[in-house]
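A quick aside before the break. I want you to see a complete sequence-to-structure record at least once, exactly as it would be stored in a machine-readable document. Don't worry about memorizing anything.
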Amino acid sequence: MTSKGPGLAGIMKYVVFALIIAFVALLMMYVSGSSRPYEKVRQSVENALDKDSLTEQNMAAFKRNFNLNAADYAGVMYYSTGANISAEEVLLIKVKNDRQIQEVTAAVEQRIESRINDFEGYAPDEVRLLEDSRQSVRGNYIFYACSPKADEYMSAFNSSL
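That is the input. The structure line, written in tokens, reads:
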């Protein structure tokens, strides 16, 4: 009496199952938050920034531009050119709770819309920069970058988590 193996259908069942498990694991790693401390994430992002064009702004500038109070959050890093004729800026916030995520993302969206209205008609490059800005919410971290190097900064943020 000869015994046959599981056959092609049986093997494919295990392959598909393994692929689903791998996909779910990657998805969980990508969308989940991070247990890394704010200071380490901040340092990683800060190291990637172009300090020739971006300077750290005080929390009064953050409040003026985003209408948010930095003391309400676990950590805030805000860099911009400081010039009204440039849309370039980078923001990293660690929120204290999930409720604050919507508040911050709405403020970022409002900032982008406001700046597009400011530049529309006379600074098309700045409008394009704002339209191509990068945003990410990963766990308790919110990242926003409006810069020619926004993809580079976003990569630094993602790899820091």
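Two observations worth writing down. The two ends are 57 Å apart (CA to CA). The chain has one domain: 35-160. We'll return to this after the break.
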